[in-house]
Amino acid sequence: MKKFIFLLCLVLCVFIGGCWTVKACFFSKGPLVVVEIKPGQSGAEVAHMLKEKGIIRSECFFKALMRVTSSARDLKAGRFDLRKNTSAFEVINCIKSGKCIHYEKVTFLEGWRSEEMADLLAEKGITDAKAFLDIVREKDLEGYLFPSTYLFAENTPAQKVVDEMLMQYRKNIAPLFRKYPTNLTEKQVLTVASIVEREAVVHDERPKIAAVYLNRFRIGKRLEADPTVQYALGYNMKEDRYWKKGLTYKDLRVKSPYNTYRNAGLPPGPICNPSRESVLGVLNPEKNFDALYFVADTGGRHVFSKTYDEHRRHIQRIRNR
After folding, report:
1. Per residue in 5-53, pLDDT tens?
2. For the chain, which domains are there?
3. Ramachandran region of residue 58, left (φ > 0), alpha (ψ -120 to 50) or beta?
4. How crowded is residue 179: how many other Cβ atoms within 10 Å of its Cβ?
5. Cα angle vertex 236, ends 192, 106, to 5°?
6. Among positive and negative, which fits the CA dihedral 237, 239, 245, 248?
7. If you write DSSP's letter for every residue of 1-41 in order, what string do you get?
8. What contacts 234, CB < 8 A, 6 or more positions away?
9. What is the pTM of this model?
């Protein structure tokens, strides 16, 4: 009896060990691979590509299984995340269901204008830049496109991309207006916040910079904000970028409703898409801060002044230094 139990245990151990060996050799998934199925590819071409990339072990079995369970038309075109050494059953089901669709990570930085976002979306193959900008301009959405990191599939409709960004705006920005009531409209807050976003380098200065622009706005003094001129100038061919550096006196005279050197009050709308921190800075500006001027100092910080004479002295001191 003891001998029988020993032999039974031995057989079980051999069987279990064999199962683990088979699993390791044939069913243990490897690293993730991004594969692309192009429109019009045949089942044989897909099978060959999957075999070359190490996703499946047998082209013949994959093609046979596909004939039995589906057809090449069921294998959707697109990019998919698949692991090496995956069973043919799982590969076919994953591609057919769309569960393995590859999502491209795209990060929109705070302070980007919609054109910069459109360029990146097109570069990543996510959506058409013109279609995206047409929606933004038609619905006047500059400032409402929440800057963050998103995951989008290739060839996502532009409206779906916009909807996702607006949803993040409603989630991250909209609650601030309920928490910090203001006499400004939502668009006015976003407009000031967009200027603050382009001016601020150090986080803790956002409420101070916001206070300066709000002070100037309330007393009817022109904002004279360089970023509004940069926005009005648009794309700079020489620098191959938006937001031209080193503005000239000629630039400051550009005719545009966004040029706050020429026009009193706020620009017609936001000049970029601001961060939550910049919006918060406008809704909750520095208390009892009556400065009307500031100039960039070292390390990204600014020096603030109440009077123009004081402002000029700070400028001279910084230049001399």
Report:
1. 444 444 443 443 344 434 444 446 778 788 888 887 788 888 888 888 8
2. 32-101 (3.30.1490.480), 104-172 (3.30.1490.480), 181-290 (no CATH)
3. beta
4. 9
5. 65
6. negative
7. -HHHHHHHHHHHHHHHHHHHHHIIIII----EEEEEEPTT-
8. 242
9. 0.82
